[in-house]
Amino acid sequence: MKIIGLNSGEYNSSxxxxxxxxxxxxxxxxxxxxxxxxxxxPTSSIKEILKNRNLKLSDIDYIGVGWNPSLHMxxxxxxxxxxxxxRENNLYTISDNLFNLTKRExxxxxxxxxxxxxxxxxxxxxxxxxxASTAFYLSNLKEAAILTCDFRxxxxxxxxxFGKNNKIKILQSQNMPNSLGLMYATYTSLLGFKPDSDEWKxxxxxxxxxxxxxxxxxxxxxxxxxxxxxxxLNQKYYFNFYQEGVKNHLYTNExxxxxxxxxxxxxxxxxxxxxxxxxxxxxxxxxxxxxxxNHLFKxxxxxxxxxxxxxxxxxxxxxxxxxxxxxxxxxxSFAPTDTGNSIGSALYIYxxxxxxxxxxxxxxxxxxxxxxxxxxxxxxxxxxxxxxxLKDFAKTVSRECAKGSVVAYFRNKxxxxxxxxxxxxxxxxxxxxxxxxxxxxSVKYRESFRPFAPSVISEECSKYFNVLKGYTxxxxxxxxKVKSQYRQKLQAITHLDNSARVHTVEKKDNPDFYKILxxxxxxxxxxxxxxxxxxxxxEPIVCTPDDAISTFYNSKIDVLVIGDxxxxxx
Length: 570
Hints:
- The protein is of the alpha/beta class.
- Helices cover 32% and strands 20% of the residues.
- Helix 15 (393-402) packs across helix 18.
C-alpha cells in the first residue's frame, strides 16, 4: 500500500511517502522553494517523492491531508449554501445543506473519491487526529495516553486521547478560543516577536534568573483552570477568535493595561520587563500543561504518554514531564508541529482507517534527499571553487572544530522537521563562550540570548547532563541541566539557567556524525559539539549542494565540509 501524506495550507507545508506502513521519504516544501515556513501547496515536495521513488501519481493508492475542511461546517453557512454562485461549490453546499437534517457529526476524516482509477482517493484527516497519529505511531509504544496541543486545528486546540495497538481514540477535546497555543502566541506578539513562529525566542528568554512574581500573578489573572483538565481564557485580554473586525494582533488593550505596556515593537535588546513577562509566561504555560496532563493520566491510568502539536516544540517543558507529572515515559517526535501532519495523516490511513497492524518503525528524522559526490563536484566546479578531497572526513572536521573553526557540515540524508541532527548542521567547539557569540552575531544573525544545542554520543550523555543513564534525546526535543562540574567547561552550549537542549547521537542512526564526535573526544576529551541548523536567520535549512555553498559564502562560516570535500574561504 502506497500513501502520500500532505501538510498543506498550514505552518510549514510538507509531504511524505509511506509504503506498507514504513516511512520511505519525507520533505518540507520550504527546503525546495526556499520560503521559510511556507504554507503553499507542496507541489515540489510531491514531485521530489515521485522522482526519488521512481513513481507516478497513478501508482499512489491514497493521499492523506492533515486538515479536515468538513469540520468547518459545524454551523450552517447561508452565505455560501443558500446563494451558490459557482457550480463547483456544490462540493461544499450539498453537504452543508444535508447536514442541516442531522446533528452535524463529522467523524475523524472526510473521503474525496473520484471515478478515476489512476487518481488516488483523498482522506482529509482531522488536524489533531493527525498530530496524535504522528506522536503515537512513531513512538512504537503498544499503548499510550495522547495529548495534543497547538494554536488551533479546524476548531480544536487541545485533545486528550488514548492509543492502543493500531487504533487511536479521542476521549475529550477543547475548542477555540480557549487555546494555550493562542495564549503563548499572544505574549510572543506583545513582546514584539512574530506569533505562531517566534515562540521559541520567548521560551529562551525565560531562562534569565530574575524575579517575575508580579507578572506571574497578572498573567494568572487572565485565565482559570477548570475541572476535567479545561483551560478558560478571559476574552477581555485575548483576541476573541470568533470576533470579527479584530486584525493584526492577538492581545487586547486590556492586556496592555494589565501589563503596563506602551509599546509592542520589536527591540534588538530586551529590557527587564520583557524578560520578566517571558519568564512568567513560561511558568504559567507549564502550570496549564501539568493541568492537562494530570487530567489525561486520571482518565487513562496509562504511564506512557505521547505528545503532539506545535506546543511541544517547548523543549523547556518537555524536559520536565516525568518530574512534574505521574507519567513515567514520554515521547515527542522529531516533527510535532503541523509539518509532521503529512506523516500523521498517512499513518492514520494505513493503521486506523485501513486497519493494518503496526510494525516497529525506525523513527529516524533522516528522511530527505541525499547527494552523491559527483553531484557535489558539479556544483563546486560550476562555480570554480577550490576544494580539497578528504581522506578522513571525521578527523578533518573534528580538528577544524577543535582549533576554533565554525564548520558547516553537509552529508547524508536531509533531516525532516525543524531540527538539524547532524546532516545539515553548523557545528563548533562547545567549550568557549565566544563561539556562541560569534555564531549568533556573524553566522545566524540573531539575538544574543538565544542558546545552541549540544550533540553528544548517546552512551556518555549522563556523564555531562542530568539525565538517567541510557536515556536518549534523539530529536533535540528536551532541555535538561548541565552537570555543575561541566558548566564552565562547556560554556557555548550552557544556557543562562545552566541548561542545554540535548541531542543524543547513536551510532546506528547517524554513524558519520557519531564518528566525528568520537574523533573530537580524542582531541579534547569531550564527545560533544555545538550543533545548530545549517541556515542563516530567515532562511530554511539548506537542501542542495548549491544551497550549502551559497549559505557558506553569505555568512562568516569558516569551513564547509560537503560530502567528501572541504572548502575554506581564502
